[in-house]
Amino acid sequence: MHLLGEWMTDNAELFRYAGELQCMREEAKRILLSGDSSVFLAPLFRTLYPQSTIIAASDDASVIDEVASEVPDIVRGIIPFSKGVYENIDIAVSVLSIETLETRELTQYLYSLHDSLTEGGNLYLSFPSTDTFVYSPMKEEKAWWDESRSILMKRYQGDDVIRALSMIGFGIKAAERDNLPDIGTVISIHAERK
């Protein structure tokens, strides 16, 4: 199993918003799973929404191949998760992905998610956060799922992301903060396209 998939299984409580979406939305025709971590949630979304089209957007073919072994009917988008253009999405999921984007890229990505969602569409977003009010530049950090690997990461402030989502046209439904020893503070947000 992919190390990221193993880490997500071991830390499943961090992704509880994915399961809670079923309580907020009974049906979803099209679901976008954007980024490697999000793609690993495909089996859960196939269970929650058995009739849905699930689109997996990742530029790591090994991630998509592994998930496709469990959910063979996923629509594969082997492209950088932040570059895809989609239409008529009912649920967009972007967990532990935006930290790889610079601020300008993040803003474009959030607008893209907004435009991809149908009116009333749901967004589930999570990211490692900074607990300080000081600007946090992109820097190399150890990958939380594989300490032998480093990734470029930018830790965003939760309030800044919530403010950006609100300005773009999302209504914030819920936000939570979790603390994990290997990743630090993680913010999870459930939003809805107005």
What does this structure look like?
By secondary structure, the chain is α/β, with parallel strands linked by helices. The chain is 31% helix and 34% strand. The protein has helices at residues 3-10, 16-24, 36-39, 42-48, 61-68, 103-116, 158-168, and strands spanning 30-34, 53-57, 75-77, 89-95, 117-128, 139-143, 146-153, 170-180, 184-193. The strands form 2 sheets. It has a 7-stranded mixed beta sheet, sandwiched between helices. A two-stranded antiparallel ribbon has the order 6-7. It is globular.
Strand order of the largest sheet: 3-2-1-4-5-9-8
- Decide which structural class fits the backbone: alpha/beta
Proportion of strand residues: 25-35%
Number of extended strands? 9
